Structure formats: structure tokens, C-alpha cells
Write the C-alpha cells for this entry.
Amino acid sequence: MQRREFIKVCAATAAAAAGDLAAADAAPAFYGRAKLVTSSGAPLKASSLPADRNFIFHYPFSTTPCFLLNLGRAARATRLATADQRGYEWKGGVGPRRSIVAYSAICAHQLAYPTKEISFISYRTEKSARNKLGNVIHCCAEHSQYDPAEGARVLAGPAPQPLAAILLEHDPKSDELAAVGTLGGEMFNQFFAKYEMKLALEGAAARVPAAATCVVTELENYCRQQVKC
Ligand code: FES
């Protein structure tokens, strides 16, 4: 092979390898299995979850909040990518109507999250001056909007990637739900780096894994003030 051709082949091979790396999928992260339960400790039945309301539980750590939503309509599989361009396929909703979804409630922009005092981020069906779309998870900190029916794809605002999806299992016989892992761009390292001191002052240890059962609470009962913009 001539030297010029050899260089061309090497360049093509390197480009192909780079392309393969860029296309590498983000793998699911499996944590402990956590059954979702009501405040009384009874298993949460998927069929009993009201549509279009914000529910919250903490997973995969005891301090990291997640939204549990019944969208009232089937949420179908879709392909997404993290901020560093790792692709992944979100498998859609679970439950009898495939309408139940869960996402980390830590905003992918600058990590706003629901606390017991205040929440800037929530699922909003209604439209407003700042929320012209409706049916989005809207973070009022800087107005990132995510589509919960499409794997929390970013629809507007500065967020660089979808909210991390929480992998749910639904048992059709018992109608019970369990969280088993995450998929997509996790923000937990950044979350703990940013809020470790705050969590410590609140008496919460940072990286304690969620228990084998996670209590699901309506956001309005968990949080004293919801900011709706
Ligand atoms: S922290 Fe949510 S948009 Fe900035």
C-alpha cells in the first residue's frame, strides 16, 4: 500500500472508532429493588394512582427525590441522549395502561429539587404565561421543561439533558410497583457535591441507599410551598 493510501485508511479507521464511541449507549444503573408503598406501608397499587398529580418518593438514595406520575395515557418508548451524547432507549410507561412513569426530580440544569420547604420543579398539566405547553415537568428556577411522556426529553430551557429516568417494574398479578434502577444522565454525584453540607445540617446522611420499601407521598403533602410560574 502506498503511504498516502495507508494514511487514508488509518484516518478512516480512527473516524469509525470515534463514531462508535459517540454512539455507545448509556447503560442502565441497577440499584437495590425498592417496593413502592403508601404512607400506611401498604403496597401502592398502580391502578389506584390518580392521574395528573405529583407524587414523590426517594430513590436510589434516601435523599434523592423522584417524581411518580400517572400521565393518564400511554407513554411510548423513545430514544434519547445524555449531555455527553450517550444514547439510550427509554422503554415507556408501565402499569395497566402503560401510563405510569418515574424520573429523578433533580433538575438537569442546576439541580433544583423538591425539599420539604419548597419546590421549584413539578409536573404541570395547566398552561401559564411561562408554561405555554402544559403537561410538562417545569422547573421554575430557569424554566427548563421536560416531557414526561417522552422519557423527560428537554422541550425548553437550559437543561442539557433529560431528567434521569427511574426504572420501574410493574407486577400485573399484584398490580404492585417497584423501582430497580436508573437510566440516562444521573446527577447524583453533582447533587451530593452541591448539597452535602445542606443535607448534613438537615441531619440527613448523603449517600444512604434507599430502603427496600419507598414511601410515595403526594408532593403537596410533602412540600410546604410549590412555586408555580
Ligand atoms: S435548575 Fe432547573 S432550570 Fe435551572
